[in-house]
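Could you help me review a protein record that somebody else here produced? My question to you is simply how this chain folds and whether the tokens agree. Thanks in advance; the entry in question is below:
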Amino acid sequence: MPPPTTIIHVLRHAQHDDSTGLLTNEGEEQAFRLASVFINERFLMAQHITHIFCSPVPRCQQTAKIALRDVIARGIPIVTVQELSDNREVGLSFLWRHISLRERNEIIMITQGVVLKTLLGLHNVVYQPEEFPNVLIRSYLLIQELHYVPRPRLRRERGRVDQPPDYSTVHYRMAVKCAKVLVKYVPIVWFGISVIGLTIYFTIPSSQRSH
């Protein structure tokens, strides 16, 4: 059985009027045309969508309600996500509040083009609206990344050690190595110094030795 996957579809809103922020007549037509695609039984994506995340911006909400009406009719609600309205804060962290990677997820996000640019990691690219045409769907497979999680630091409370130290650290290994070197070579060095000292002592005439 294949492992659960998370597929993310990103969608820019339909055409809107800059003065009102709402969809134009052409924008509504674009959304309705997309809705007819979702109704088509051969369009498998519509049948498998499990979550709808949408920016609170009115033109995005309008696009979602028109274009995804068939998906909504199946009982999939529109979840308004504030993070999808601001390209400075956008990220995928909000997903973990709504989905589990142990399950199969197929998500569609509706937001503005400038937010999509940041969401897709194009931080150093100057935003060009034509790069994100209205109601164009782009699909991505979410791959989990393994992050290094540091072990808890050694904490002492009332003389009691709550967490044992991490003996695998580099500093500990270096300390052990230095201790082994000292144990091995310090007696030899001390013996050599003692021999040299005694040799010098007995080469000095007894009359010149200090008592």
